Amino acid sequence: MAHPQSQEADRKNKEVIRLERESVIPILKPRLIMTLANLIEHGSDRAEFLKLCKRVEYTIRAWYLLQFEDLMQLYSLFDPVHGAQKLEQQNLAPGEIDVLEQNFLTYLFQVMEKSNFKIATDDEIDVALSGQYLLNLPITVDESKLDKKLLKKYFEEHHHDDLPDFSDKYVIFRRGIGIDQTTDYFFMEKVDMIIGRFWAYLLRLTRMEKLFSRRSKRHHKKDLKKDDDINFEADQDDFYVERKRLENMELSARNLLSKTTIQEPTFDRIIVVYRFKIHGLLRASTKLKAERGIYVKHFKNIPMADMEIVLPEKKNPGLTPMDWVKFIGSAVVGLVAVVSSLEMPKADLWVMMAVLVSVVTYCAKTYFTFQQNMASYQNLITQSMYDKQLDSGKGTLLHLCDDVIQQEVKEVIVSFYILMEQGKATRQDLDQWCEELIKEEFGESCNFDVDDAVHKLEKLGIVTRDSIGRYQCVGLKRANEIIGTTTEELVLKAKQESATL
Q: Which pTM does this prediction carry?
């Protein structure tokens, strides 16, 4: 990463978004283990370290087995595909089903937290949607089709800070940051920009710009992450991603007919949780019980500015009320201006032509822009269904459970290795050294969750703490003895012995 001062100079006249580093360790576990093992000098210690890594994983997997089993059993009752039949077989009262729903959500949110997913806040969503990328239509959710009781009840019993306004209807979890780039001619979009800028020029020329200025002011009020908002000295733990948008580029004859690359930060993973509205009382009817289904949808690489494509029950987009106001208002104002000019003793033909051209160009701009955006919207929705949706329901939950285990194992291995190499360390030193190791050996940055790592090390019994709070690990051989032989090792040993017979 460049020095903050040079970063500041490079970001002049650029749109950047400041993002917090996340706790997820973005390294495959086999690569992490083998890289650290190869750093150990003695072969005997290397073998003990590899054995310890296996025992740590087997033990952590056993810790979570029962919790994950409960999660999957509960979800089987609320699976939108087969849950209705299982609920009917259980013959449960509505109140009992309500309790099971809340238990499922409690387990689900715990797994999300352990897997380093965070609930997207209003501020994050506002910043993400403050720009445009490939989706240029206003997308709204048909809230009348979504249940508002399930999640509302959960959040009343489990407090969360900075919940978004829609949290009673659906929840968006996000994790990881990436970059999406698209290179194309964007000819229609550039033409639309030229018409838009020409329209703005004509508005200034005819002094009608004040009539249409209110919406643009409202649209830009949340442009939070500009250069002058960033304190480079105070925020060196954060990182920055640049947005490259057509709206910010200078148009010329050369770049109008050439390919252009635009860039947008992405949420690497998004999970959306919601349920459809339950109509009527829950009786023995299969139809009504099917509406108890809870949807869990998993997406990848979603551009921040196009987050709307993951929303449930999207309404078909159309011209916004403000577009209609502008459309009709410009026609009326233009007509009045033309009539007024004709009634004057000396009709100013240039003014009349300017007014007529401005009205026609704006109407054409509104129509063609909408048609172009509708085509893009349909393509994006299709892509989100086939390319960007990873899984849903049970498949997503299984993926999350494995994610939790992988992250927990990596945290323990990295922190134990640091203590083994450095000796005693305070919690703050351990946190810093773990982050430096990940950066130096793997070229990755993360906000290492030292509290969670230390808690698991203590639970395993392979670290001790001295009188002033410094941590120290036991020897490799002793650590393996403390954890002991795992069931998986006994099964593998028996399998190998049977193979040799």
A: 0.77
